[in-house]
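Example with several molecule types.
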Amino acid sequence: MRRFVLGLFCALLIAGPVAAVLPEEQLADPVLEARARAISQELRCVVCQNQSIDDSDAPLAADLRAIVRERLSAGDTDEEVMAHIVARYGNFVLLKPPLDLQTILLWSAPLLVLIPGGLGLALYLRRRSRAGAADPTPLSAEERRALAAILKTGDAP
Amino acid sequence: MSAEIGQLALILAFMLGLIQGAAPLLGAHRGDSVLMSLGRASALLQMAFVVLAFGALATAYVTMDFSVELVARHSHSTQPLPYRFAATWGSHEGSMLLWVLILALHGGAIAFFGRTLRETLQARVLAVQGMLSAAFLGFCLFTSNPFSRLSPIPLDGTELNPLLQDPGLVMHPPLLYLGYVGFSVAFSFAVAALIEGRVDAAWARWVRPWVLSAWISLTVGIALGSWWAYYELGWGGWWFWDPVENASLMPWLMGTALLHSALVLEKRGALISWTILLAILTFSLSMIGTFLVRSGVLTSVHAFAVDPERGAYILVFILIATGSALGLYAWRAPAMRTGALFSPLSREAGITLNNLFLLAATATVFLGTFYPVFIDVLSGDKISVGPPYYALTFAPLFVPLLALVAFGPMLNWKRDTVRAVLTRLRWPIIVTAVAAVIGVVVFGIADVGAALGIALGVWLIAAAFMLLARRWGIGRKGAETGRLIRTTPLAFWAVAVAHAGLGVTTIGVTAITAWTDSEVVTMVPGQTVEFAGRRITLDALGPATGPNYRADQARFRVEGRGQPFLMLSEKRFYPSSQTQTTEAGIRGEAMGNLYISVGESATLGAATVRLWWHPLVGWIWGGALIMALGGVLSLSDRRTRLAMPARKAAQARAAEAAA
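Resulting structure tokens for the full complex:
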């Protein structure tokens, strides 16, 4: 279920096709082209800041798009194309950093807050409500009379 | 002459800031009223001097005084007047002056409106505010002086970055800074409360309007920035997970948490030390945002001025400010009164859970933004953290949070039962289920994620309506609905409106991520393409000129779906700064935007045309504005405005006298 939800929202957020791809760059085979687009969205244009090669107008991004399409046409799998590009440019080009020893902290960030935070919250709530469950001091006779008077008139004295 | 006046005013303001940072603190400690009133006086005077300094710089810009180095670097005689004025904060030095201006205005406001506060509390708040002021004024004076002169005086300036010559520049930075700096008030109040060792509902009533106004500005500022990027950068993205965007998102997320926990503190007297911690963290994140933009640690489109020395100054200052505030917190908070009790199923508990998710979401954005820097410093390796990371971490945190939002206002304070809550929410649950089923049927199983995203938005909106319907007694026998509608307090409207706005944004985000359509074609004049159910013809392609640019302009005729209309898209060239920008043609419609941008083409007489259909994209910003409207409603509620303790006491006395 968790995997499903994750997959769902991941698809939801990265889906939007945006294109800097020029008409003459596109591959004739629509299946290959779609794969090329998907790969391009995961690769960073190294000369511009924070843009994927799919979005970027920079010449270097166009070169990388051409390499991706060349490798795909030569029959490489998606993974092989990625590996080829990473071998040349390093992990820097991956917009989704790989999960390894260096990035374990990054990837576990949500859980690192949610799990201890959730436990802390649960303990806190238990303490709060247990303290609340303890018998409150009963009203004195005078307070009870005052309360009855308030309830009767519907207004504070 | 004006530059020298500005310089002098800035120096005087800095010295007043130093006095303000020390005198009232000592005064409050000794119970010395004279020293405490010195804090008020210096805050007001300091405000006057900073306003004068800012006015001096703005005058230099508007009158094109190119002997001032800053003006010469960011203005040009052909630059239109609104952009000459807005260029005042279009540079690093100028934007820091704007930051200081807003900080001084807030300090002045506390001194002026805060007369009803407990004297020692006001003195301490002003002292903390004074320290912040002095630090940022010192930063301006020592590392980024806006008033340096140039010799020889150039004949003309080099213009402002053309990307910034846009109505967005007039509004976006001031609104963002109003947000960032507005949180400084919460920070100062938190630190002052820690020094006093005392927090009560009156404290929360005082802080909440400031948090609200900062939050409203930040919400509108972020939405405006997103819209600006959408139409200006020429490819229709609305959020890039750019470090600088993240820098504004972090205080927003934290500020949202603070807003809600301050509400619990005000209404129920609970979550005292948690609210104080959030106040400290929210402003710290605002300062980190400034550090991010100003230091160039993370380069991005926003870093129009970067300098390591400045970065170091701000970083050291953040470490001192945040470090000492947190240290004070660790020392004093455990001794603070623990607040009122509540059960695990209550509105208090619901808000605490919302805070937990917001905290986790902030941590995700924080790590995503800074991790590449950590890795670079520690091992020298370079990595990137882009949108796919946030899709896998931020989104799974935000979706349950959105689902939870509807529950909060439906829960009773103190204690509630699952059954009662579900009964109250039965109509929204039914509506949402129906929406989800229709969505899956209409869009197909392949788009199930999108259908659920839309249903989530519907859930939020339906629950907001249900909130009002319950308050109005709709469906309850004998309820005087008319009277109940009239007597619904603005603060109640605020909750419904803000939460519904969140739903609207959710629907917009879902639609644009799921159903964006795009195409790239090379077109010659007269050629027609079919796109998104329309026939788009390139009518004409030719040169055009503006006040300070030349352009290649393309005119399109769009037919199909209603009246035909024309659209323009330009590729502009600004000769004085030798830069190019793309002005996209955008046609906003109820169901979405048609977005056309022209690029260069390999062949003469033809243009590379990029076409996009962005479904419901306007809902993203519309929803944000509705959220901000919710904030405004809450702020205008009499109980928020007039809740200051002394005025309340005065009112009570007046009422007694009248009776």
